[in-house]
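Problem 12. The chain below contains 331 residues. Write out its predicted structure in token notation.
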Amino acid sequence: MDNNSIVLLAVAVAGGLFLIWMILYFIPIGLWFQALVSDVKISLLQLVLMRWRKVPPSVIVGAMIEGKKAGLELYRDLLEAHYLAGGHVPQVVHALVSASKANIDLTFQIATAVDLAGRDVFEAVQMSVNPKVINTPPVTAVAKDGIQLIAKARVTVRANIKRLVGGAGEETILARVGEGIVSSIGSSDSHKAVMENPDFISKVVLEKGLDSGTAFEILSIDIADIDVGKNIGAGLQIDQADADLKIAQAKAEERRAMAVAKEQEMKALAQEMKAKVIEAEAHVPLAMAEAFRSGNLGVMDYYRMKNIEADTQMREAISKPESKKKTDKLK
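Solution.
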């Protein structure tokens, strides 16, 4: 056998294998036989058409076999429609089987709606059977006596299948529980009462119906830990006292500044008056000279005025003996 014959034979074998692979890919005979022996009614043509519709036949057939074995009636068209809508077919079927075994009323329509809403429907069914415990972050609140308390709670919730579509998630539960803890502690007269009876918080919070509008049902709220924090009341009083002190200091400084300004104003006024007096005294000799020239003032009148001035100075000196002594010492 020459080389050309060998090459042609190899090409023919490769072409035959490729052709067989293409036939087995588009005509999944093995998958059809698996469905047949599992008592799932699906034709070979439908499997071929699934390939053309971009639907994996193995996913649909596997889901139908699982449902059949669990006693559920699943329809191929609905499974394909859910897959094409972006849903998770295996998760939906797992959830339906689990709900059926746990006697939970879950229909195919609800399961697919929950899945398309972005929730894990299988996890929701498991949570409905086995409640989940959610630990809240530390919640800080202040009692009426001003003492800060830091509380941690454990919330036991169960999924509510009927409210999974459109219901709020775990974040809403945690926020509402935290708000309830804050209001419960804040309404307590003393932090000691809260420390002695932490169940009071759980009862008050549970009575508020915090699970309304959520995808869960709150079974219990347990206070796991309560720690005493800062004395917020004392801190606020200290801050208020500091603020009052600063205000008083500012007002005192304002009054001092006003007093200094008033004193400066009075000094300026006194200097102005003194300047006017000096100016007036400077005009006295000129006025007297003018009076002498005009004959309105005589020599005897001038001497009498001087005597009166000397007498006035003497009287002032006699009335102030201390000042006189100081004046004598200075002399």
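Discussion. The chain has a mean pLDDT of 80. Students who got a different answer should revisit the alignment rule from Section 12.3.
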